[in-house]
Design a protein that fits this description.
The chain has 8 helices and 14 strands. With 255 residues, it is an alpha/beta fold. The strands form 2 sheets. Strands 6-5-4-3-2-1-14 form a 7-stranded mixed β-sheet. The longest helix is centred in the last third of the chain and has 11 residues.
């Protein structure tokens, strides 16, 4: 199993900055931020499944455009997975004909370009030998993280989250955890903003990681442009024992 990082930035502002999206093997997206736009039309057309953590724009920006680009090249609907709350937001506020066509009804409700699949937290979805499970997190809108399990090892992606005991309880139940990709959106000087927006800063992340009961590789994502160097310096200072690494575009995990 291969997971390629298409985007991992908390914003835009340069050729190297793409917002959150990950390609699992060739056919599954985890979130659909601006990083998806670097894929070719051929690569886009073979994506069959998209798992959404939450509906903030940096995590879904490419989904409407991708559908519009490849719909005529596909012979089956694109499956979009999310909790009931996430699917409701997509229906009401994105694919609503005012912002974008409702591809769950085009060209017809019986044979659409897109179908929704509602997920339940902690209930696994099996796609071949791959198992994807939504995990509880705490954010300003309904949100989840994801466990991706190859059978041999697991990778957990937090999505966007603030402090959340339920997330760590779920993570600690994963016996084969190898990688943890976790957000740290703000530097410590923005701690109040992190709390209000239900994100993490280095001091908060240091406290949260004390709840982790596994020895795994830690990868930092969702750094805000303009604060990357400062935030990583603070992470290196207060999280040295965890040896965290900054997630990079085009990084590939095999597990």
């Amino acid at each position: 199993m291969k997971l390629k990082i298409l985007g991992c930035s908390g914003g835009i502002g340069g050729r190297h900055l793409r917002t959150t999206s990950m390609l699992l093997d060739h056919d599954i997206l985890i979130d659909a931020g601006t990083g998806v736009g670097d894929l070719s039309i051929a690569e886009l057309s073979v994506i069959d499944h998209v798992f959404i953590t939450h509906t903030h724009l940096d995590h879904i920006a490419s989904l409407p455009l991708m559908l519009d680009t490849v719909a005529d090249r596909r012979n089956k609907p694109l499956m979009v997975y999310g909790t009931e709350a996430v699917i409701t937001i997509l229906r009401n506020h994105v694919f609503n004909w005012a912002i974008w066509p409702d591809f769950s009804e085009v060209p017809s409700a019986e044979n659409p370009f897109m179908r929704y699949q509602i997920l339940e937290v902690n209930q696994p979805v099996e796609l071949g030998k791959r198992t994807i499970t939504a995990l509880p997190v705490e954010h300003t809108v309904p949100a989840v993280g994801y466990q991706i399990d190859s059978g041999e090892a697991s990778l957990v992606f937090s999505g966007d989250t603030g402090c959340c005991n339920a997330f760590w309880r779920a993570v600690n139940r994963i016996s084969n955890l190898k990688h943890l990709i976790i957000e740290c959106a703000f530097s410590n000087r923005e701690e109040r903003l992190a709390v209000v927006s239900k994100h993490l800063c280095p001091s908060m992340l240091a406290s949260e990681l004390q709840k982790l009961e596994h020895n795994c590789e830690i990868h930092i994502t969702h750094l805000k442009p303009g604060q990357i160097e400062l935030t990583m310096e603070e992470i290196a200072s207060c999280l040295a024992d965890f040896k965290p690494k900054m997630l990079q575009n085009n990084q590939v995990f095999e597990f």
